[in-house]
DNA sequence: AATTTAATTGCAAAAACACGCAAAAACACG
DNA sequence: CGTGTTTTTGCGTGTTTTTGCAATTAAATT
């Protein structure tokens, strides 16, 4: 392998994961540590990355990691970590869009091997960073508000899918009313997603609890898992615990 | 073996594998290292490949390196500005992916009113920022390399579309060979895109000129517009001017 | 503070490279 | 056809680049 190719490989890794470990590169490229160190040093000289003890970081790392713009990011990370346990190798997973799902995808373990269907372009792009993940983007009209595809075509395609697990964000959840939404199209979409998955996990930051909106998606019983950032025994969840669903 | 034959052989190897080792060529062509080096140097002078220690790399293999400062961004903006003139209100436009197209979308005038079909999630997200634009994302398998959807499903959907204009980036263009590509799937995809648009504009930074890769997409005559960052009368375009296509 | 882990430095061998030179082949032209 | 010129090619020599190893230093971990 030519040096230039190694450099390209390293830069691809960096741009993909924002970071890279010297030891990983040694294995992946089967060269000595010294060579990798020299490569990294040369890339630093070319101003293409930061070097740190143990590896290197992307130059855009600081800007991309510090997206404190994402509302309640910490909570979403907690939720993501819980949800990841539901995903097993070989599964077919269907996901919606939204920042919570996106956070989940970013937290996935490197080696994960699964098939993902998604209606969110951003989720698709993020999923594509995992080598052993097959990504199928469900196409259709693209919604400017929710940044997902929707409409008849999407629903038609969903009807042909059989997924093991559906992960969806939520606008509102209520112990009696179940899942609800404001927009007709999104409502239809969620129904279709529920219909094609064996199990559904709803990712929900606590402040969306106990809210009921105009349109009903499904009763609580249709959901398999409710995942919040709260402790399982938290008071706020008591009315949900009485229902037929797992709380994580 | 004649020198020209050796050169052709080397270029075939390069276009096939994106790279070539000096030592391999010495063996394959049974000539001395010096001859190979001279050959490579001449091909570099003719602007047909990159030379690196140990061998040479394809020019088109300009890997998605430094994506913080998108490669040749200035050129791409010039191209974008030219291409935008082709888009009229009310049109149905089909776009591919790639950084050039993405730059074009970012340069669109705010008030633009049109319908866009696209196979690129990133383009879709960017297009969604324009209020009067309807965005339809064509779904299917998502390619980790080229960041577009591809495969049978995409082609099937494309066959149902009738677009006024197709905007596509390019890996390589050649006055005799026309548009060419390295990957089968992408090749099929581009063919399908061409087939469903009345006119096609190819966006191409000048360094991709005069390169022919393994798989043929279409002859030059199938393209309506060739858009580069160069002046229309630039010498480098002379061989394209002779053909049946508009150069912008 | 002790131990493990990663970085740095200098060194040496191998590989790749550049340059000049000369033999051979191809070419030009009266 | 003969002679002079250019092109092409391989070889020898010296230089540079690349790479791994060993010894030392620095950083993190406990």
Features:
homodimer; 248 residues; Arc Repressor Mutant, subunit A; Rossmann fold; three-stranded antiparallel β-sheet; 10 helices; 37% helix
Describe the structure.
The structure is a homodimer of 248-residue chains. By secondary structure, chain A is an alpha/beta fold. In chain A, 37% of the residues lie in helices and 23% in strands. A seven-stranded parallel β-sheet of chain A has the order 6-5-4-9-12-14-15, with helices on both faces. Chain A has a three-stranded antiparallel β-sheet with strand order 1-3-2. In chain A, a hairpin with a 6-residue loop joins β7 and β8. The longest helix of chain A has 15 residues. About 2% of the residues of chain A have low confidence. Chains A and B meet through α1, α7, β6 and β7 of A and α6, β6 and β7 of B. Chain A binds a DNA duplex (30 and 30 nucleotides) through α3.
Question: What's the arrangement of secondary structure elements?
Answer:
The structure is a homodimer of 248-residue chains.
Chain A: H1 3-17, E1 19-21, H2 22-29, H3 33-45, E2 49-52, E3 55-58, H4 61-65, H5 73-84, E4 92-95, H6 99-107, E5 114-118, H7 121-127, E6 133-137, E7 140-142, E8 149-150, H8 152-158, E9 163-168, E10 173-174, E11 178-181, H9 184-195, E12 197-203, E13 215-218, E14 225-227, H10 238-241, E15 246-247
Parallel strand pairs in A: 4-5, 4-9, 5-6, 9-12, 12-14, 14-15
Antiparallel strand pairs in A: 1-3, 2-3, 7-8, 10-11, 11-13
Helix pairs in contact in A: 2-3, 5-6, 6-7
Chain A binds a DNA duplex (30 and 30 nucleotides) through residues 3, 22-23, 31-35, 37-38, 53-54.
């Amino acid at each position: 392998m030519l040096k230039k190719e190694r450099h390209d490989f390293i830069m691809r890794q960096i741009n993909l994961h924002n970071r890279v470990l010297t030891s990983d590169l040694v294995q992946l490229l089967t060269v000595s540590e010294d060579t990798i160190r020299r490569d990294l040093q040369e890339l630093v000289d070319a101003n293409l990355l930061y070097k740190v003890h143990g590896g290197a970081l992307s130059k855009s790392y600081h800007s991309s990691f510090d997206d404190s713009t994402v509302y309640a990011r910490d909570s979403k990370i907690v939720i993501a970590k819980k949800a990841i346990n539901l995903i097993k190798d070989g599964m077919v997973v269907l996901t919606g869009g939204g920042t919570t799902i996106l956070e989940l995808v970013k937290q996935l373990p490197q080696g994960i091997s699964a098939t993902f269907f998604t209606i969110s372009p951003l989720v698709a792009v993020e999923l594509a960073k995992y080598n052993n993940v097959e990504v199928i983007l469900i196409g259709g009209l693209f919604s400017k508000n929710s940044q997902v595809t929707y409409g008849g075509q999407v629903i038609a395609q969903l009807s042909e899918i059989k997924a093991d697990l559906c992960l969806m964000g939520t606008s509102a959840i209520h112990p009696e009313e179940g899942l609800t939404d404001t927009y007709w199209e999104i409502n239809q979409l969620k129904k279709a997603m529920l219909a094609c998955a064996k199990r559904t996990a709803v990712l929900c930051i606590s402040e969306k609890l106990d809210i009921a909106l105009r349109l009903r998606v499904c009763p609580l019983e249709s959901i398999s898992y409710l995942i919040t950032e709260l402790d399982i025994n938290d008071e706020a969840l008591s009315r949900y615990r009485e229902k037929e669903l797992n709380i994580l």
